[in-house]
Amino acid sequence: MKFKAYITENGVNLLEKRFLPALEKTGKTWHLYLTRDHTMFLHNLLNGDGIQSMAQFRKDSLFHDYRISSQNDDRIAFSLDLSLLLRALRSAASHSSAASATRLEVKLVKKLPPNSTQPMPFLTLETRGFKSAVIQDIPISKPLSRPHLLELQTALDTAQDIPQTLLQVPDLSQLLNLVDRMKLVGDVVDVFISKHGDLSVQVSTTLISLGAEFRRLPVIGEQTNAPAEDQNLSAQTRSTRSISRGDGQSVQVSVKHFAKSLQCHLARPDCAFYGIGPQGSCLTVIFQFFIPGSRQTDKSISFHCRLPVLDSGSG
Amino acid sequence: MSHLGMEEEEVPDVLCQLENVQGLVDALTAVRWKRQQDAVLELSEHGIVLIVEESGCLQAKVYLKRELFIRYDYNARGRPRFGVSLGHFVDCLNAFSVPGQSSVVQIQYPGSDMQVLLKSVDSLDASICAEIRTRIPDTIGWDYNFEPAGTNPLTFTVKSAALKEAIEDLEWPGSSIQIILQPDPPSVTLRAEGHGDLQIDFMYYVNSELLVAFQCDHQASFKYKYKFLRATTSNMPTSVIKENRGSKISIGRGGMLKVQHLVSIAKPSMSHAYVDSVSYQQPGRIAHIEFYVKPEESE
């Protein structure tokens, strides 16, 4: 089992400034899953409950001179504490900016830690300059065995299904601001999504309800036109009518999970889409990234989260 | 819903719109001295008064005059009163306050189920809504009628920031604070005895910047519980300190203490250089906050 690559400047930028800070908000422990062509950061895929999050990069958007080999079809996965990786990357980035001729190498190693007789696996970041080298060892779990790796791959495959209808949500940070206030009110948020571009989020308790409604959002996938007679009704009446007509669906998710999904705006996506999974199985958020300076989707990066549904709701 | 829409659409008692939600949040937070607090709202043609009370010893009122609102439709007879949780009310209002943006919030009472309804009215395509359940208010246990102590009022005005700081400094000595007003030399003394002694003097002639006004024709001295005194300044909005406002303190018959603050609810001004002059030019855009503190029983 071998893995060795050099992180490109763009890769350092993507990980250190954007993705790792965003992923870290979702959870502490992540699987790093490396294949011949892709690098993936996966959270909670094997446990089931809690928010699931997947960020995938084509190898050349992060690395050059990428070499990987393993008996599991050249696939390696292990879990690690993301905050350690972020810290190591930050320090490496500050070193490499100080001396321009440095290369940032990342590799898997087995080392004998101090006061131990058992060699342990590490992910090592090595910055090598003309005069000095800085080596940082990040402790990682033992690489996943073949059955576990297959399990992870299966979980990843099933987490790929895309909702039939996706709504483009404007201004994630503003919505996050609102959801942060919602946390004070209750623990569960009702999310309603319709095929004609209505999205509403609402927290209710016996004493209080607080919510926001967005109308006429851009729709991807299955869409219908909003019935004209519904235009002037209250948000609640419209969503009830829409659910009974079958062109809207509502699910309940944890406010905390919802806030975490919004915190992914730290990765600076160009667009974000929310949708409800088949049969109301989950609430899915898909982030879209453009090729810098264009409006074309950057296919080398994909990032999405799945929020577990607490109750299948009225949908 | 569809038939006889005109008759079923009852006109609410009050429907008002406010531009600066943050100002309202600040004013209400000023009277929020603990997590769970019940407030009573009283509506009238002059505006809205919010009242909070604790242990029969401390009462606070926030006066929101109708001039504060950009729209104020009042349709009730009598003065409707209802109770809400102050915490819920502030938390909901907070959701309408977008940093760096002025947003208009509409407040309506009652809804179909006697709720308070809050709604943002800036845009048709994105809106925030909140509903807060109300309850029938308790009758207030004792009368906070403030009557002057004699023919001349006992009162002084001190810079709000200095008052807050003085009360914070008095925390360590003990649970009871003595306030002494004396005419000669004209001064106000705050004194605490407990784990130690601490005395803070405001001398009228020595520091007229701090003690802005002073009126007292005979010595008066009363003791107040520290926790009640602290409640009068603990959540003072930062805008009060930034705008260098003063707080007026009066002592009435029997030692009843009245503390008054002014909180600006003006729409945030575009140009910061003129913030002060603008807010002073809009006397209507000020919320008055009053605290009443009963003195401790003298032994």
Describe this structure in words.
The complex is a heterodimer of chains A (315) and B (299). Chain A is of the alpha+beta class and 315 residues long. Chain A has two domains: 2-158, Proliferating Cell Nuclear Antigen (Box); 165-308, Proliferating Cell Nuclear Antigen (Box), CATH 3.70.10.10. Chain A has helices spanning 9-26, 59-62, 82-98, 146-158, 172-185, 235-245, 255-263; strands at residues 2-7, 29-34, 38-43, 52-58, 63-69, 76-81, 103-111, 120-128, 133-139, 165-168, 188-194, 199-204, 208-214, 219-221, 248-254, 271-276, 282-288, 301-308. In chain A, the strands form three sheets. A nine-stranded antiparallel β-sheet of chain A has the order 6-2-3-4-18-17-16-10-14. In chain A, strands 5-1-7-8-9 form a five-stranded antiparallel β-sheet. In chain A, a hairpin with a 3-residue loop joins strand 12 and strand 13 (208-214). The longest helix of chain A is centred in the N-terminal third of the chain and has 18 residues, at 9-26. The relative contact order of chain A is 0.15. The model of chain A has no long low-confidence stretch (mean pLDDT 91). Chain B has 299 residues and is α+β, with helices and mostly antiparallel strands. Chain B folds into two domains: 5-132, DNA Polymerase III, subunit A, domain 2 (DNA Polymerase III, Chain A, domain 2), CATH 3.10.150; 154-293, Proliferating Cell Nuclear Antigen. Helix content of chain B is 17%, strand content 38%. Chain B is built from seven helices and 18 strands. Chain B has helices at 5-8, 21-29, 86-96, 160-169, 226-231, 238-242, 275-281, and strands at residues 14-18, 38-44, 47-54, 58-65, 71-74, 81-85, 105-109, 116-120, 126-132, 154-159, 176-182, 187-193, 197-203, 211-215, 220-225, 246-251, 257-264, 286-293. In chain B, the strands form three sheets. A nine-stranded antiparallel β-sheet of chain B has the order 6-2-3-4-18-17-16-10-14. Chain B has a five-stranded antiparallel β-sheet with strand order 5-1-7-8-9, covered by helices on one side. A four-stranded antiparallel β-sheet of chain B has the order 13-12-11-15. In chain B, strand 8 (116-120) and strand 9 form a beta hairpin. Chain B is elongated. Residues 1-8 and 270-281 of chain B have low confidence and may be disordered. The A-B interface holds A 170, 174, 177-178, 181-182, 184-185, 206-216, 235, 237 and B 1, 85, 88, 91-92, 94-95, 98-99, 124-133. Strand 13 (208-214) of chain A pairs antiparallel with strand 9 of chain B. Chain B: One of its GO terms (biological process) is DNA repair. Chain B: It is found in: Nucleus. Chain B: InterPro entries: DNA_clamp_sf, Rad1_Rec1_Rad17. Chain B: Belongs to the rad1 family. Chain B: Keywords: DNA damage, DNA repair, Nucleus. Chain A: InterPro entries: HUS1, HUS1/Mec3.
